[in-house]
Write a structure and sequence with these properties.
2 domains
């Protein structure tokens, strides 16, 4: 192969021509181009500083054009500096707006927290007020119930007191006595026919008073007990005591007292009220004792 040798002057001319076709640049321009590219790649700058970025683009184009036209390095650096400044303005504005947005977001969050707190406080206050209202209603209802119970109890007590007073008055008229067995009303021998179980008119009037007591005190019952003296046989006396107790029960039933409220016993000559040593004492032993039950209908037999 044949080697071709070019003259040195021609080689120098070719090198200079090649160098003159390459775009001119400076280190400031290169740095500005990198700053611009970074700004272009930042979506926050594009969104928050669009006008400043357009101004930076125009300045960047001017610097690149100067370099392309092979302007002086001083002019290229001046235009690159101007573009760098505008890029910096866009960056700083973006930072400022992001900071403002962050502060606004923080303020909004703080305001929301305060609003939530006030709402919670209001809800709590409302709940407490509702609880207080319900508590007041309950207290009022309880007070009303207590007052009603008190009035009912007082009315009941007054009723019982009235019944007791009436009972005491009726029992006083019947010459009742309080004993260990309870209240006892005694119908003496004079209220019956001689050696008979038939009540005399006076005995019927006394029995009517007893019937009135029982009709006024429906919770009470009676135990009618017949007794005799020791005159005559024991069998006769036992029979007579039973018939006299039965006569009182029959009279009470005729006067409207339920039969199941009346129990009878005949004890004959047992349990004398006095010694059978005189006519007067024997008359005391010929008797009918009526045991009035307590308020619960309970009587105490012998």
């Amino acid at each position: 192969m044949k080697k071709i040798f070019l003259p040195a002057a021609l080689l120098t001319t070719l090198v200079l021509a090649a160098c003159s076709s390459m775009p001119k640049t400076t280190s400031l321009l290169d740095q500005t181009r990198m700053d611009y590219q970074a700004a272009q790649n930042n979506p926050n700058i594009i969104t928050l500083a669009p006008l400043e970025m357009r101004q930076a683009t125009v300045a960047m184009d001017d610097a690149n054009t100067a370099a392309k036209n092979d302007e002086s390095s001083e002019k290229i650096d001046r235009l690159a500096y101007l573009a760098k400044q505008k890029i910096g303005v866009a960056q700083e504005l973006t930072k400022q707006k992001m900071a403002e947005a962050s502060v606004a977001a923080a303020a909004k969050t703080r305001d929301q927290i305060r609003l939530d707190q006030r709402t919670n406080e209001a809800d709590q206050a409302k709940a407490q007020a509702e609880q207080a209202r319900l508590a007041a209603q309950i207290a009022q209802a309880e007070a009303s119930d207590a007052q009603k119970r008190s009035l009912d109890e007082q009315a009941k007590a007054n009723e019982i007191q009235g019944r007791n007073a009436a009972l005491e008055a009726q029992l006083a008229d019947l010459k009742a006595k309080t004993t260990e067995r309870g209240i006892i009303i005694t119908l003496g021998d004079v209220l019956f026919g001689i050696d008979q179980a038939k009540l005399t008119p006076e005995g019927m009037r006394t029995t009517q008073k007893l019937a009135d007591v029982l009709q006024s005190n429906m919770q009470r019952t009676v135990l009618v007990e017949g007794y005799t003296d020791n005159t005559g046989s024991k069998a006769h006396n036992q029979d007579l005591s039973e018939r006299r107790a039965g006569a009182v029960r029959s009279a009470l039933v005729l006067m409207g007292v339920a039969r199941d409220r009346i129990a009878t016993r005949g004890y004959g000559e047992a349990y004398p009220a006095a010694e059978n040593d005189s006519a007067q004492n024997r008359q005391l032993n010929r008797r009918v004792e009526i045991v009035l039950s307590d308020a619960n209908g309970k009587t105490t037999p012998r």
